[in-house]
Amino acid sequence: MIEVKNVVKKYRKIIALDEATFTAKEGRVTALLGINGVGKSTALKAIMGLIPINSGEILIDGEPINYEVYNKIAMVPDVNTIFPHMTIEEAFNFMSIYYKNWDNEKANKMLEFFKLTKDKKINELSKGNKARVKLILGFGQKSKYLLLDEPFSGIDIFTREDFIGAMSGEFIEEGQGLIITTHEIGEIENLAEDVVLLEEGKVIKQFSAEECREYYGKSIMDMMREVYRNA
């Protein structure tokens, strides 16, 4: 389980995370949602140990981020950080060297799903295809936890729908935990199992999307409207 406990992150006078507390369980998809600038990307970067926090604690299966824990967690960022001058095949080879759980078979399967070929140079790809490669590099790591920051940005709606459908059936590993931030809330309605709502760096609600649907007949968007109107 990923535990974020009373985390504060400040950028000078700006408080990006304000005593944020939430959990993300293994084997479940957690949607981290809110309007722009509420701290979603900051939270993912803090979990990955990419930025220092001012106070609080983040634990991965009871441990703080360390070298061994990094083998359990991976992130698909919302910016292009992949290897621009490599071909896709060269990027796969690089990943196989540096990530012990890298699954080349899975990466190739996803490559086929997205109708891409290994010989393409990454910097010559369209924005949408670069986003596809980022997803392949993230899922190919077969990490216990995978953080996805606006993963569908730049991907056309039809491919998004097909991929979201394939995620639960083919690409998410058994027992793998995902945290996903997205503005395409309607498209992840049937994928998300738990939801964390952020407002100005604070967690204002964490709830089970399954319970909302089953017991209250409400969608994630219905609950968001209700929570934010009363916040």
From TrEMBL:
InterPro entries assigned: AAA+_ATPase, ABC_transporter-like_ATP-bd, ABC_transporter-like_CS, ABC_Transporter_VariousFunc, P-loop_NTPase
Alphabetic keyword roster: ATP-binding, Nucleotide-binding, Transport
SUPFAM superfamilies for this protein: P-loop containing nucleoside triphosphate hydrolases
GO MF entries: ATP binding
Entry's transmembrane regions: none
PROSITE patterns referenced in this protein's UniProt entry, alphabetically: ABC_TRANSPORTER_1, ABC_TRANSPORTER_2
PANTHER family: ABC TRANSPORTER ATP-BINDING PROTEIN ALBC-RELATED (PTHR42939)
Protein name: ABC-2 type transport system ATP-binding protein
Organism: Clostridium punense
